[in-house]
Amino acid sequence: MIFAAGALLSQEELPALLDSLEERLNETRSGPPLDVDVVLDAVDSLGRTLDSGELDPLLAQYAPPSAREELREVRGMLRREALEARLQLELGDLRPGALVERPFGRTLVQPLGVLLHVTPGNQVGIPLFSALEGLLTGNLNLIKLPHGDRGLTLAALKLLTQREPRLAPWLYAFEVSSKDTGTLERLAALADGAVTWGGDEAVSALRRLAPPGCKLIEWGHRLSFAYVAGYEDREAEWSALARHIVRTGGLLCSSCQVIYLDTDRPEEAEAFCQAFLPLLNRAARERDRDGAAQAALYTHTYRLERLAEGAGDRTWFGEGCSLTLKPDRELELSPLYGNVLVKCLPRRELIPVLRRQKGRLQTAGLLCRPEEREELTALLARAGATRITRAGEMSRTFPGEAHDGEYSLRRYIRLADIET
Q1: Contact, 276 vs 282, CB < 8 A?
Q2: Higher pLDDT, 208 or 347
Q3: Which residues, 6 or more positions from 379, have their beta carbon under 8 angstroms from its beta carbon?
Q4: Residue 21, Cα to own-chain centre: how many angstroms?
Q5: Predicted local distance difference test score (pLDDT) of residue 251
Q6: Are 118 and 196 in contact (CB under 8 A)?
Q7: Whole-number Å distance between alpha carbons of 121 and 124
Q8: If you average pLDDT over residues 384-412, what whole number do you get?
Q9: 108-158 pLDDT, tens per residue?
Q10: Structure confidence by residue, pLDDT tens digits, 4-51
Q11: What DSSP line would sit under 339-374, residue for residue?
Q12: Whether 101 contacts 159, CB under 8 Å
């Protein structure tokens, strides 16, 4: 299906839409600019509808079982006051349409223009969230939906534009395969900016598709980790970390991929694994039926792979989860679904090791004694981490936080200097 300016179209109508799309976009750009208050009111209304439970049948029909909890975590970001605070923090006086007095004249703030969003399928709501950032900055939005979106974004866009028809001309969404380069090239040719949320392969593919002059805005895959250098309340903090590992399954940029221990003694790492496994096991038992079955199958496959490889690493297996102690220091992806890596990394080696992943680091979940938190936080920030949280809060979204170390809305505007 296709969403085009408020209407749902069949895939058979795609060629005709592509033929007329440039004219439609230019017509919208030639008219009045998008009023940010219209966006704020519409999103706030959608959030209140989510609170009321009115969207529960929609989520049950189109979204995975975890969607309700994931959306609840970002609910605060959809409140009008939170969005207004974000606009002020990220843009200040540089909101689209603003005129800023300068010594030579004035600077007119404009939307970038047309944004092509290429979004992943690893987190519910990302396509809509990406388009929301485009709307907040007054841009037209073309959304390439991820495989497995299951119609959720199309349904949400339809509901949003029914509630606020003035948003309809600013939104288009396409169920297009990543292999359909012909269609993607035509969409990219219309874009002033291409927004990608994928990994290296997705970023490279979009670079090949985007024409010269199209601004590439990368929100690529990131790596996150926990750093254990002590604790305030061991049981509580370790349990929170275990729940995070199981709940996110290693699928998010903020998911813990490696548990680093502030030691270079293997026997201490083995003792940690033995003590942490029961907590990870307990968290794994709290999964729903589908999640437990998927994790059990994945863990069984992982166990067979370990046996076949004959690797020298040591692995502790639980019920649909595991800990694998590896002798190297490198930050890498974990085996996912509650199967996580453990490595030694004394703090004196933290910067040289983590700097090998510069540009890819995101969240560091820090467990330490209270008197060491400030020192270790500064050390992790110098190493390149862009978010430093308590270990159990690694994937929690905080209102007003930056995106991978940047204020994203600033990347969706342009400045026109005017001599007077």
Answers
A1: no
A2: 347
A3: 347, 350, 351
A4: 28
A5: 87
A6: yes
A7: 7
A8: 91
A9: 999 999 999 998 776 778 899 999 999 999 999 999 998 877 788 898 899
A10: 999 999 999 999 999 999 999 999 999 999 999 999 999 999 888 877
A11: EEEEEE--GGGHHHHHGGGTTTEEEEEEE--GGGHH
A12: no
What tokens appear for 27 in the block? 């017509």
Q: Which of 121, 122, 92, 117 is nearest to 107 (CA)?
A: 92
Please return the burial class of 69, using the count of CB atoms within 10 Å of its CB with bins 0-12, 13-18 and 19+: exposed
**40 is written with which tokens?**
């704020």
Phi-psi region of 175 (alpha: psi -120 to 50; beta: other; left: phi over 0): beta
Beta-carbon contacts of residue 75 (< 8 Å; ≥ 6 apart): 47, 50, 51
Nearest to 67 by CA among 27, 10, 125, 113: 125
From residue 258, how far is each of 97, 272, 329, 339, 342 by CA, in Å?
Answer: 45, 13, 10, 10, 6
Report how far residue 241's alpha carbon sits from residue 388's, in angstroms, rounded to the nearest whole number. 14
Place of tokens 């680091």: 361
Using CA atoms, how far residue 294 sits from 99, 220, 290, 307, in Å, is: 54, 26, 6, 20
Helix residue spans in 212-342 (DSSP H)? 234-248, 266-284, 289-309
Q: Do residues 126 and 63 touch, judged by C-beta distance below 8 A? A: no
Name the amino acid, one letter, at 346. P
With pLDDT > 70 as the criterion, what percentage of the chain qualifies? Answer: 94
User: What does each C-alpha distance from 89 to 129, 132, 217, 400, 402 come to in angstroms?
Assistant: 18, 17, 20, 8, 10
Q: Is the dihedral of CA 246, 397, 62, 170 positive or negative?
A: negative
Residue 354 identity (one-letter amino acid): L
Cα-Cα-Cα-Cα torsion 44, 50, 53, 57, nearest 10 degrees, comes to 130
**Nearest CA-CA partner of 115 in 27, 216, 266:** 216
Q: Which residues contact 82 (CB under 8 A, 6 or more apart)?
A: 76, 399, 400
pLDDT, mean over the chain: 90
β-sheet bridge partners, residue 389: 365
Phi-psi region of 217 (alpha: psi -120 to 50; beta: other; left: phi over 0): beta
Alpha helices in 10-125 (DSSP H): 14-30, 36-52, 56-62, 67-74, 80-90
* Close Cβ partners of 177 (under 8 Å, ≥ 6 residues apart): 147
The structural domains of the chain, ordered by start, are 2-220+404-419 (3.40.605.10), 223-393 (3.40.309.10)
Q: What is the pLDDT of residues 380-390, one digit of tens each?
A: 999 999 999 99
